[in-house]
Amino acid sequence: MNAKTNRPWLLVIGIVGLLDLPASLPAESELPKWALGPFIRPETGNPVIKPDASARFDCPMRQQTLRWQALHTFNPAAVVRDDKIFVLYRAEDDTGTMQMDQHTSRIGLAESADGIKFKTEPLPVLYPDIDSQIGAEWTGGCEDPRVVEGEEGLYIMTYTQSTRNDVRLAIATSRDLLNWQKQGPAFARALDGKYASLPSKSGAIVCTVEGERLKAVKIRGKYWMYWGEGVISLAHSENLLDWTIAENLRGDKITVLRGRNGFFDSSRVDCGPPAVLTENGIIFFYNGENLGQEGQLKGDPSLANGAYAAGQALFDSQDPSRLIGRTDSPFLKPEQAYEKTGQYAGGATFIEGLVYTKGKWFLYYSCADSTVGVAIYDLAAP
């Protein structure tokens, strides 16, 4: 297969590092010029993080030793630090009923020199504890992290607090990726608590690239975050800790992206990894669920009913609510056996982690809600 020639890659280092993103993909699956890719699975190594039944953790809630990542390891975030790639991932223990979302989740940490071979920490780095967030995190746990770097080397994590009956988008901070301080629900204090009880999850903060770091960037004096599942909404912040949901003139939260009849995202859309500010606009990476051919809504017939595949959307660089473009076909979809078999029967390549290092983009994703996979965009590849 012949690929189109890449345009020159420009990486501007500074307060606002803008990217001139090439469009290089085989003709039969071409991305628009503003999009990032192609992302190719390495020949060997996937899945890069798997469950480990030997890992033990003394749970402060249950007051017993648990196999904290025995069942599933999935939904990964990623950052570059000290010339290594670190992945924070959701791990499920083997307590509870043997059904989806019926186990307690904790967040683990793994590191790699090459982005493929990982060494995992023996203990979780974020988990339900006897602390101020106990009522929001027990018994479902801490789920689905996404991580960016803020000011002065502070890492900002968005994650989901789950009681199993209720979910809240929350914030945690760290300076070393090992020790995290919980900051509480993202929307609790804004607008006099108007959205404090609103179910929410999946926060993708808008970033820029500085060297090999994805750093949160201000647009018109504010940080911005895409959030939500089913449909995508928008929020802004002055400090990356307290977030205000963007509203229309009627005082209702706005929707900036939703599913489309006839496409891979026909059923719903969920946030992917942190969005990236480029010279063409803000690239928002997202996950689309395919509805198959049920009822009046019809999805992509090449995908299984319920399958999750990855897309990209482009928003205005000065107006994060204004949609400019969108991919019609997924740039990553369930194809391998490990992406089609697992606790999520429909199959999933659910993206959540993205880093740039050594001339390559590494995209980390959940394989059927069971393991972590990686796909790589090598700028030097033909």
Mind explaining what this structure looks like?
- This protein is mostly beta strands.
- It has a single domain (10-378), classed as Tachylectin-2, Chain A.
- 2% of the residues lie in helices and 40% in strands.
- The protein contains two helices and 27 strands.
- It has helices spanning 134-137, 337-340, and strands at 10-11, 19-20, 57-59, 64-66, 72-81, 84-92, 105-112, 119-120, 141-149, 155-162, 167-174, 181-185, 203-210, 213-216, 218-219, 222-227, 229-230, 233-237, 243-245, 268-271, 275-278, 281-289, 308-315, 323-326, 349-357, 360-367, 371-378.
- The longest helix is centred in the middle third of the chain and has 4 residues, at 134-137.
Q: Overall 3D geometry?
A: globular
Q: Secondary-structure element sequence?
A: EEEEEEEEHEEEEEEEEEEEEEEEEHEEE
* β-strand number: 27
End-to-end Cα distance: 11 Å
Low-confidence stretches: 1-28
Number of domains: 1
Count of alpha/pi helices: 2
- The CATH architecture is 5 Propeller
